[in-house]
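Example 9 (inverse folding). The structure is encoded as follows.
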């Protein structure tokens, strides 16, 4: 039985735990770190039955000794928490973005180089049906060498998520290039199967503009 620890028991991690459970692979949650312990235990009594809540990740790692970790906290804490897991050599499922600054990224890269941890970063779009169909066409060779790719990713129902809640804070998320476009960069690299030589990013905001103060609904 694989004993799992979860740091950040939000909607995304609950979904991933349901997916893991669907494989009947013998995994169970034994420890959780989340500031909303009481409401979570009230709202998810079956999923959290027998689970111990901890105040911080270090305490959980020391006392619970999980076999693997899932990190689904707010973006700015992904890297420091991942480093703590990597230092213990534990299997890690890490939500994207892996870091929100160059300094975090450098520290994470150094920790990864020293670690034996197997790591999966949450990039599900590369296994979506449309991406897999494109991959099969490309790898079949029927269209020859890929010289140009144009991708459009419309997510119309995300406006309230990215502009009305905590994700509107670029200091927390690193902005939409890290919070959302990482998915697109991942599946493009996957499809092309070539490392990028140069990256150029441009943006334009066509909604939620104006000179009103932030935070209004």
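The amino acid assigned to each position is listed next.
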């Amino acid at each position: 039985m694989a004993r799992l620890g979860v740091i950040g028991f939000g909607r995304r991690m609950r979904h991933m735990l349901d997916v893991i459970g669907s494989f009947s692979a013998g995994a169970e949650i034994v420890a959780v770190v989340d500031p909303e312990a009481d409401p979570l235990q009230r709202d998810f009594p079956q999923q959290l039955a027998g689970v111990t809540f901890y105040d911080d990740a270090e305490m959980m790692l020391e006392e619970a000794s999980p076999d693997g970790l899932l990190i689904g906290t707010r973006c700015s804490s992904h890297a420091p928490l991942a480093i703590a897991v990597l230092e213990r050599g534990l299997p890690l499922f890490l939500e994207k973005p892996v870091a929100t600054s160059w300094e975090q990224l450098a520290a994470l890269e150094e920790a990864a180089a020293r670690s034996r941890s197997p790591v999966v970063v949450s990039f599900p779009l590369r296994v979506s049906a449309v991406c897999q169909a494109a991959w099969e066409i490309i790898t079949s060779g029927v269209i020859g060498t890929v010289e140009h790719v144009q991708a459009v990713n419309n997510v119309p129902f995300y406006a309230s998520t990215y502009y009305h809640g905590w994700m509107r804070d670029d200091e927390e998320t690193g902005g939409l290039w890290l919070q959302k476009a990482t998915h697109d960069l991942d599946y493009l690299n996957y499809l092309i199967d070539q490392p990028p030589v140069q990256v150029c990013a441009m943006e334009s905001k066509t909604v939620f503009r104006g000179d009103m103060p932030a935070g209004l609904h």
